[in-house]
Amino acid sequence: MALVSLSEYANAHGLKVTNVRTAQRRGKLLTAVKQHGVWMVDEAEPWYMERRKDWYTNEADGLTEGEMDAYDRVLMIRHYAQCGQYGETFAKCLDAIPADVQEALPAQQVAALVDAIHDSYERGYRAGMAEAGL
What we know:
Layout: E1 3-5, H1 6-13, H2 17-25, E2 33-35, E3 38-42, H3 48-55, H4 65-80, H5 87-95, H6 99-104, H7 107-131
Antiparallel strand pairs: 1-3, 2-3
């Protein structure tokens, strides 16, 4: 994950900088964070209008616009989480994070929390198994 400025993101994706800034203000760039007064975004994040074509499977059929935005965010968090490839494990770890915390943090930070919960569980599980002699 490499963060780039909004203008660098616009150049890399062949977009107008004003369109990227508008998307950031509207919350469409899920990885956007402000660092030292400058808005940055993950260079690998797909442009929000394109990711609907690339990311979704049939499980997104019939979702409303608001539900689609929430689905976008979960997919982005899952993309960044190391345990994201394990669907059920990822979902349980994500559910352990309060909704207000999930909404307040950028996707990368929520993914880091998901991974911390997963790692904590794994360490506890392994310690318990070692204690039991298994």
